[in-house]
Amino acid sequence: MIEAAALLSAIVRHWEDFTIITVLLSGNAMVGFWEEFQAGNAIAALKAQLALEARVKRDGAWMVVPARELVPGDFIRLRLGDIIPADARLLQGDPIEVDQSALTGESLPVAHKTGETVYSGSIVKQGEIEAVVQGTGKSTYFGKTASLVAEAHTVSHFQKAVLKIGDYLIVLAVALVVLILCVALFRGDEMMTTLQFALVLTVAAIPVAMPAVLSVTMAVGARVLAAKQAIVSRLASIEELAGMDVLCSDKTGTLTQNKLTLGEPFAIPGITGDEVILGGALASRAENEDPIDLAVLAGVKDGTHPSSYRVTHFQPFDPVHKRTEADVSAPGGQTFKVTKGAAQIILALAANRSEVEAQVEKAVDEFAAGGFRSLAVARTDDQGKWRLLGVLPLYDPPREDSKATIAQAKQMGIKMKMVTGDQIAIAQETARQLGLGTNIMDARVFSETSHAQAGQTDDMIEAADGFAQVFPEHKYHIVDVLQKRQHIVGMTGDGVNDAPALKKADAGIAVSGATDAARAAADIVLTTPGISVIVDAIKESRKIFQRMNSYAIYRISETVRVLLFMTLSILVFNFYPVTAVMLVLLALLNDGPILAIAYDRVNYSNQPEAWNMRRVLSVSSLLGLAGVVASFGLFYLAERTFHLGRGAIQTFMFLKLAVAGHLTIFITRTRGPFWSSRPAPILLWSAVGTKLLATAAAAWGIFMAPIGWHWTLVIWTYCLAWFFVNDWVKLAAYRIFAPDRSGLLTKVGLHPRED
């Protein structure tokens, strides 16, 4: 619309206005472009850290390289949970199962064997095998398809709220501008000049900087989170984090250290503990770097010499079989199989189940009561029948910071729920140590619940402190139930089968060491273990929310102030208090401080954030009305007391709107008194700098009638006096419209100080 105003200036041959508006418009466009360009670069840099990696064999050694560096002919290793990085032909090995749903829409995994081609973007669901790369990048099946598909964009709750504010301002601006045009037509005013002014006034009222403010604020927050080892893959998820009130967290590696240590094993009569450990070690593979395998291998005692045995075939753990298995050749030439896995899985295989089941279950229960996970080990006999050897206890101690971080999360209004595949006794003991509570729900209840009991089960899910014996599909159900109960839910995950739950959650969080599939489905990817980084991310997201809330209140109050003052001046006094050029100049001067809001120092709330439109609109409208009163007060002084001419009065009002407008930023950025939180230097000096520019323009008469330094000092004094009045109006508005927020008007308690 500013372009249209420039065109109208040319039509009526107001060349000075045309030149000024064009120059200011170009400057404004360059500022907006540069800020969004910077934000885009920041987002691109963060996403580059999430690039897929591949295990490739080069110069005879296996190494991990970015998937983009693969070339046809490379030998790669594919494992459970990997997103296949390139089109590749499978080499010698066992068949693998691949999820091709992203490419073909097939809901079930497809089996692929030696010699067949698997496609980039597919996910390995079972097994592991080596392959040779055939195509990369745009030459892959996925690349060719992706080039034909436009990216879909979703709008978050946060963006919807901001857009609603924009719609409100646009409707208000258009209604008042139409009223101005109608009155001008009735009075017989020059329509070209009136239309030019109306267009510029509309632009000044519409929040044209909102996309830039939104992008910059989100990108700045994402950079801060990345420095804290949390990489944001979907910027809009930052707002979901701010409102999150339930966090379902994995136990292993997030709440605990994921440093398993092997305890003293239970062995059935006739078997030694060393034999149980040896069997477990042979069913493990060090190069997979699985924490359980590494703990078992580390527990091998001197003298057992597992290296003297040769593993001829190894079947890694997968979600279907839920155990590992190895074909072994002993030093004497004897061959046998070993397997390790959950006790109930191994017992189901064992031919001696009836003899040992009671002993095994007792041992597992005793281990669980002490917080130990149990891993059963079995070996085939001469007839090829499985014989259970014993149970290995594994202990994963809580992280040192977990208990304190969980307590902090509770203070921030977040209900923590632990999610684990361990037994109830282990989960209860771990939850007790962490201070989570011991109301642990057995996830097996989900599949046993009838339709009539569903409501009762949902109540149990909402009240539970955690869930035990959880399979990945249970996570999705937990998230779904909590969301239906109006909770904003965060869910952590690391496995390929966690992807649906991560996608379903309002904030899906892939923990450190997660599979490619989990990272691709998550909104936030953690690059360091522990829950403290999640809490840090929540704090930062709430700060971002505060910045955007401040911007919304500021933008609405300024729009109400300018629009009502302009409209009433024209209707009542038949006087344009500022020129079209002045309005464009005001819009340009506002850009610096507005964009600096993204870098402001703010305090996070100790409760989940949500948009309260009634409060936002009420507080901002009261501030806007107070600004209208202040503007007419100065207008009266300039005309009736100081007896200034029309040109000087317009300069008076321009400087008043510029100075008072920027001072409003420092009022709206806090819910308490303006001095309760120091602004960031970049916000302070950007506001000071633009106010000084406006002051110099008014004093020296740049694009307006000069008024000299004496009158600029008078205007500054007037604006500073009203600054204190407006701050009092804000405090009164919050007392009226937010009476339930204890500590709202002070900086004690609710908002920790952020220096």
The coarse silhouette is elongated
Radius of gyration: 33 Å
Question: What's the total number of strands?
Answer: 24
Q: What percentage of amino acids are in beta strands? A: 15-25%
Biggest sheet statistics: 8 strands, mixed
- The mean pLDDT is 81
- Based on helices, strands and strand pairing, what is the structural class? alpha+beta
Strand sequence of the main sheet, in spatial order? 10-24-23-22-11-19-21-20
Low-confidence stretches: 145-154, 741-755
Number of helices: 26
User: Percentage of helical residues?
Assistant: 40-55%
Determine the N-to-C terminus distance: 41 Å
Nutshell version of this structure?
It contains 26 helices and 24 strands. The chain is 52% helix and 15% strand.
How would you describe what is shown here?
- This protein has an eight-stranded mixed beta sheet, with helices on both faces. Strands 12, 13, 14, 15, 16, 17 and 18 form a seven-stranded antiparallel beta sheet that branches.
- It has 26 helices and 24 strands.
- With 755 residues, it is of the alpha+beta class.
- The model is unreliable at 145-154 and 741-755 (pLDDT under 50).
